[in-house]
Amino acid sequence: MSLKTIFFDGRICRSEPDGLDEIADALRKQARALHDIEVDELVEFFDAVGRHWLRSPGIKKRFGPTLKFLAKFMDKGNLTTLLDTALRDRHALDGFVKLNKTKMLFHAQPRGLTVHWIAGNVPVLGIFSVLQALLTKNACLVKASSRSYEDMTALLQSFSEVSTKNLKGNRIAKAVAVVLVEREDKESQRKLSMSADVRIAWGGREAVDAITRLERRAETEDIIYGPKYSYAVIGREKLRGDVRPLAYKLAIDASAFDQYACSSPHTVFVERGGKASPLDFAEELAKQMDFVSKKVIQPGKPDPGRSLDILKARNEYEFRGQVFSSKNTDWTVIYSDEQGLAQACFSRVVFVRPVDDISDVCAFSGRGMQTMGVAVSDERRRTFADSATVRGIDRCPPIGEMSFFQSPWDGMFAFDRLVRWVTTYE
Amino acid sequence: MMGEIENLLGAEPFGMGKDEKREKFLSAMRESLAFHCGNCREFRDFCGRRGFDPAGKFSLEDIPFLHVDTFKTVRLVSVPEKDIVKSVQSSSTTGNVPSTVRLDRVTIERQRRVLSSIMASFIGPERKAFIILDSPETVKSKEGKISSRASGIRGMLPFSKQVFYALNENLEPDAESLRRAVGAIGPGVEVCFFGFTFLMYKFVVEAEKNKEMLDMLKGLHEPVIVHTGGWKKLKDLMISKAEFNESVAKAFNTVPGKVIDMYGMTEQLGTVYPDCERGYKHVPVYSDIIIRDPNTFEPVRNGEPGLIQLLSPVPNSYPGISLITDDMGVMIGDDGCKCGRRGEHFIFKERVKKSEIKGCGDTLK
């Protein structure tokens, strides 16, 4: 069957609902029900869900350390800050509010039905767009990946296990449906697209191109989380003392999601002139990659093709650099004097490259870049970040927080894109 | 005094079981490792970084391996430049850059000897009429370099009494050339067709549409068909080995058991692994194969699939003596194949599929 419903009406499906049209109609009804829930109640609810996940053995086992990223995002304080930053006042989601000194009143109305195309490699990132859509009172129709939909449904099903003072989880879970659609099923893909008030696409170039080419209504909004490259930069002033904590944080960034997320660093530029040399740092990073793979985040098993890519990269740099690696494919640190961004190898392969000055790295920035982890002194950071971001990169978080999902992401406040701003007057 | 490598190359190709061969082969590899570490600084450093001492105690499994692609990016030689007499380039079917290996006379002579011994076991010692399914243009060297196809064809010529080419310069079947070849083959001379797997398949597809060519081929009696070069293109066309063997046997008027697929690679020319009548590839005494787990790189047990590692002391001018490939294989047994050949036998499974990244981390190229 080319279309399969996995999650609908707040639970994992045992029997098939009628079809995409019926699913979309049911979700639109749920969206209208969401409209009557106050945003602070939704925030309370998702805060409770995050804490529930951290306590739930099944969820903890399935997601491991990744769960901390999710729970941190769902923390009440974080959500209210993110919503207030993106929407100026989160209560604009509940009704008309004043946002300036004029007589105008502003209200952020949900757009309606959001349709999400989730990438198979990092399904957890996809849940972030679902959470943001629900927080802005939109219903969600998720086209999941056949190889990783269980992660998504496990999280959604657990909504029903949580209740807050005013909200039963099942009510929120009913606002989400998950389907599988075969790539060749053009008609179902078209229907998904035509039903969307917002299309949200996570994925590689081929996938997002295919989605954006689908027919859609003129008023439909697109939020595209396409293919991106990320890297890290370390200034010489951060190499004065013990570099172990910094190397550990970078190892976490490079190990989270096994480097398959758009926010994962592939190249690390280390400025010369510090107490520790770039090569010293590479050696310490290797130790921390080993520690993280053994004690903190267990590596996934790459497919044979990826293993060969790792082996080839190691072999190539044996002769024109220095290679530090596990005996198996768990992790690799490759040091070389080359300039520029290394071709991403994935599966915890980090290229360490020295630079004379961190400003040299700005030339490598571009619109295909997403996150630049930064360990640079306060004095230099803003100027440096400004030079890099004007060329295209979107985020400059501290090293150790590269894979924390934040808003904005990919240069967008998704909360803002998920609402229609409507006005009246005092 | 004869060296260990020379001793090994003088042995029958399939006359020993695994255990019997092990010490002799290890001694030859020890001699080869000492030579390359002594004469190729890059290789010596590579071994050193792996903590491997060629003068120390080690087993075959401990010998560090290079990936075959290393010869695409790194120039590795173990003899003076003046001793290099030719360079051979791979077909680079899985990438744009070909591997280049540089050969001296010692290597070429060793390659000739091992190829001759191995092939004699499969096609017999008598010279045959060879009809090459390729163009005569292919065999010519260009700017001192020859392609792996040319090298493969040249390697077969010592087994030939007569040589003919059956494709034109566009690599299309040439009925006129085939007619001349069939007409010129002497009475009682056995015929062997040799070609690269995909070209052979193309030839068969064209021949099946051409009654004149089919009739010519039907006039031959059970010729031997030897092909090499890999299955990638046929796999893309969803053609299985069994289907290939059947259609080739039918077109050439022979039996599937006489259709021989030969596994080997440019980086270790001469050491080839032809199919026996049972469909297994045999490891001669001149080389060894270790199947390794693609994640741990540890050797796997017989019957388990893994990456194919090739070991051979034949290369003298370059240190390509322990190579891991892009190919998956399964070791079937250490000895006792019913075809009568001694030693390890294995099957080639497939070229490892290129890994795809489909998520947002599918970074821009």
Q: What is the CATH topology assignment of the largest domain in chain A?
A: Aldehyde Dehydrogenase, Chain A, domain 1
Secondary structural class of chain B: alpha/beta
Taken in chain order, the helices and strands of chain A follow as EEHHHHHEEHEHHEHEHEEHEHHEEEEHHE
Radius of gyration of chain B: 21 Å
Task: Detail the poorly predicted runs of chain B.
Answer: none
Structure report:
- Chain A has helices spanning 20-34, 39-55, 57-63, 66-74, 76-87, 123-135, 149-159, 169-173, 186-195, 205-212, 244-255, 278-296, 304-318, 378-391, 414-417; strands at residues 3-8, 11-12, 104-110, 113-117, 139-143, 176-181, 198-202, 221-225, 229-234, 265-271, 322-325, 332-335, 349-355, 369-375, 419-425.
- In chain A, a hairpin with a 2-residue loop joins strand 1 (3-8) and strand 2.
- Chain A folds into 2 domains: 3-226 and 410-425, Aldehyde Dehydrogenase, Chain A, domain 1 (3-Layer(aba) Sandwich); 229-391, Aldehyde Dehydrogenase, Chain A, domain 2, CATH 3.40.309.
- In chain A, helix 2 (39-55) packs antiparallel against helix 4 (66-74).
- The longest helix of chain A has 19 residues, at 278-296.
- Chain A contains 15 helices and 15 strands.
- In chain A, the strands form 3 sheets. Chain A has a 7-stranded mixed beta sheet with strand order 2-1-6-5-4-7-8, with helices on both faces. A 6-stranded mixed beta sheet of chain A has the order 11-12-13-10-9-14, sandwiched between helices. A two-stranded antiparallel sheet of chain A has the order 3-15.
- By secondary structure, chain B is of the alpha/beta class.
- Chain B has a domain at 126-275: 3-Layer(aba) Sandwich (Rossmann fold), CATH 3.40.50.
- Chain B has helices spanning 4-9, 18-39, 41-49, 70-73, 105-123, 148-156, 175-184, 197-208, 211-218, 232-236, 241-251; strands at residues 66-67, 84-89, 100-104, 128-133, 145-147, 160-165, 191-196, 224-228, 259-263, 273-274, 281-282, 288-292, 305-311, 322-333, 345-351.
- The radius of gyration of chain B is 21 Å and the shape is globular.
- The model of chain B has no long low-confidence stretch (mean pLDDT 89).
- Classes of the chains: A alpha/beta (426), B alpha/beta (365).
- At the A-B interface, helix 10 and helix 13 of A face helix 3, strand 1 and strand 14 of B.
